[in-house]
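[INFO] parsing input record for Sulfotransferase
[DEBUG] input buffer:
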Amino acid sequence: MSLEMEFSTTSKPIPASGISPESPQKYVEEISQLPKEKGWRGLQELFLYKNFWLYPVFLEGALHARDHFQAQPTDIFLCSSMKTGTTWLKALSFAIATRGHLPSDDGSDMTTVSLRTAVPHDCIPFLEFNEYSTAVTGSEIPLFASHLPYTCLPKSIIDSDCKIAYICRDPKDTFVSMWFFLRKFVAGKNSTDVESFSSIDEAFELFCKGLSSHGPYWKHILGYWEASKRRPEKILFLKYEDLVEDTQLWVKKLAEFFGCPFSAEEEREGVVERVVKECSFESLRNLEVNRSGKHEKRGRAIENSAYFRKGVVGDWRNHLTDEMGKKIDVIMEEKLMGSGFTF
Ligand code: PAP
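[DEBUG] output buffer:
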């Protein structure tokens, strides 16, 4: 079986229960009642929802999902704060879940959804963008993604037996990745916005105060960490750095967690290695779709290449001083103290 065939998939619309064409106005009004802060310049204000700072673009979708999304026990959610390895986790999960698929016999419901032709964000729908109502994926395992903090997830996700794989990343690299991404995202709008965008120093100070998209970052981690301790069968906790260190090990853990472990035969045939290779930073970044393609979110086109900047551990050293690094480490240590979690 060629890799091309393995990653070609048959379509399978994700069932979305109770989606209504309700006007988002209802949510705009709800959001307008929330406490807000200016946040990073050039971007919209951040709104405080359930003790987390969120941009309206995510918040509207979160409120809609709160009211309408009904998780099924078989669903699997890939959760993360921004810029912690979401794209990679999506790619690996999609590759794991679709590794044995062939196009359907009758060809009637073929889809082109494949890591070769779509950015991983188009392979696995985001909860906050209400993509679950229209998403078509090739995965028989219903895979969804969300940047929402644990306590902001729709109740049915928490209450049902569905599973969550959560990925976090060293805060220094996460911050640097976020600053570059958001600056680039802003640059897509117009140049005046870029000029007014927070400098890396200003954004760093805000990040340290918890004022960042889906921040405070430490609180995002703690929510999932505590939940994973209470319910280890429901939540698998990953670190970007561990994934870099031993990708094969974590790919096998993910497959087991999803309920589709690699068979001895698959392992012998090198399927694990092929999944890892297919989803590596270099492989994905060099695909035409990720070099020159664009990706649409809420009517905004984002260059797919923005999701593949450097993909290395410790890049923060090129952008932050040792002092800044120390400051963030001390904050994280204090905030995570007693939780049993460390970086
Ligand atoms: P998102 O929140 O916008 O979805 P997310 O995918 O979580 O972004 O994070 C992007 C980071 O993951 C980027 O890190 P950097 O800015 O430090 O470079 C990106 O390069 C990195 N990344 C993307 N794909 C991969 C991959 N296949 N392997 C390793 N790192 C990756």
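[INFO] The pocket of 3'-phosphate-adenosine-5'-diphosphate is lined by residues 80, 82-88, 91, 173, 177, 180-181, 279-281, 284, 307-311, 315 (CB under 6 Å).
[INFO] shutting down worker
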